Amino acid sequence: MSFLSVNLARVKPSPTVAITQTARELKEAGQDVIGLAAGEPDFDTPEHIKDAAIAAIHAGKTKYTAPDGIPELKRAICDKFRRENGLSYTPPQVSVSTGGKQVLYNALMATLNPGDEVIIPAPYWVSYPDMVLLAGGTPVIVETTLEDGFRITPEALEAAITPKTKWFLFNSPSNPTGAGYTRAQLGALTDVLLRHDHVWVMSDDMYEHLAYDDFTFCTPAEVEPKLYERTLTVNGVSKAYAMTGWRIGYAAGPEPLIAAMRKIQSQSTTNPCSISQWAAVEALNGPQDFLAERCAAFKARRNLVADMLNAAPGISCPVPEGAFYVYPSVAGCLGKTSAGGARIDTDEDFATALLAETGVAVVFGAAFGLSPYFRISYATSDDVLHEACSRIVRFCEGLTESPLRSA
């Protein structure tokens, strides 16, 4: 009998974390590596937020807090939901955790029983299926298509729902594709959900403030108020506020669910960092003008990356509505051989050879549940992105047709 939990055998390490770590180690070893795997803004945390954290330290706000958040932060979150999403919550309906990932994990741990199903559109954030598995549930993966803009259709959602379905786990704008759902598209999905009152909605809104062109963000409970009592709306300060290392995520939903999540957290990590919580209060309550400036910078980077990749032989890169990722297809590169002699049969082969031969680290599409694609995070400088994309273009230009393998 293995000493380790059988549940642990059901999951795998995060591919994005692993690739980011590999790129970091290669760079530390002196290799010329450009890491485009991590979803982390290169912008610094705004000064007024850092100042609030320093003030909290000097004020001695360094003790344990309530397990799922200080009252001041819960009130700021309620104000944010009312101000930006038209959603009315009270502090007992709010949970604060050590990052958005813990919010999702707590909710799944608090609700899933063996046999319960969670519908997850693919491509998906790499952690969704594994968190479901760790919680004892069954991920039901519904593949989307490039033709549908990587959006799940109402028909596909309807077909995936069974009596065992407990959650529909939804992310817009999406990691890894950047695809966003319009109000009409989201309304078509909520119409399906209204017909199945045993299905709850977990809406991951982490990239809410990164929306481009004519796309306007909306969230399920806002679009369809009848789903309010069975929706958990998840967000955080990591991406828009450049606070990835501060580790603050939050959610609002029905009070009994929030209480169950609090119980999980009280027996695992207890409260998030007190200093980070006070910084998050300032993030949500303080000046917001920098959000538009940074969003404009990300949009320019998106355009740069998409334009350059679409000039690469064998690559087709759709232009996303939000977040800071692109998810290009490498279908035109498959069956070829790289200049370094690597056979490219899968998107993982593509990413592996790209790192080995050019020093550019990306995440292969199979990690997100849909091939043949790869993900680039463009949350870094224009100069770095231009150099990385130039290397990718040269890599693709060096691909040649592979001889047929013998049977």
TrEMBL record:
EC number, UniProt record = 2.6.1.-
Respond yes or no to whether keyword Transferase is given for this record. Answer: yes
Which coenzyme or cofactor does it need?
pyridoxal 5'-phosphate
InterPro entries the record matches: Aminotransferase_I/II_large, AspAT/PAT-like, NHTrfase_class1_PyrdxlP-BS, PyrdxlP-dep_Trfase, PyrdxlP-dep_Trfase_major, PyrdxlP-dep_Trfase_small
Enumerate the Gene3D superfamilies for this protein: Aspartate Aminotransferase, domain 1, Type I PLP-dependent aspartate aminotransferase-like (Major domain)
This enzyme catalyses: L-aspartate + 2-oxoglutarate = oxaloacetate + L-glutamate
User: Would you say which domain of life the source belongs to?
Assistant: Bacteria
* PROSITE patterns in the cross-refs: AA_TRANSFER_CLASS_1 (PS00105)
Any one GO molecular function term: pyridoxal phosphate binding
Keyword Cell cycle in record = no
- Name the residues that span the membrane: none
Keyword entries, A-Z:
Aminotransferase, Pyridoxal phosphate, Transferase
- Which GO BP annotation is one of this protein's? amino acid metabolic process
- Domain Aminotransferase class I/classII large as annotated: residue spans: 32-392
Name the protein family: Belongs to the class-I pyridoxal-phosphate-dependent aminotransferase family.
| Quaternary structure, from the entry | Homodimer.
Q: What is this protein called?
A: Aminotransferase
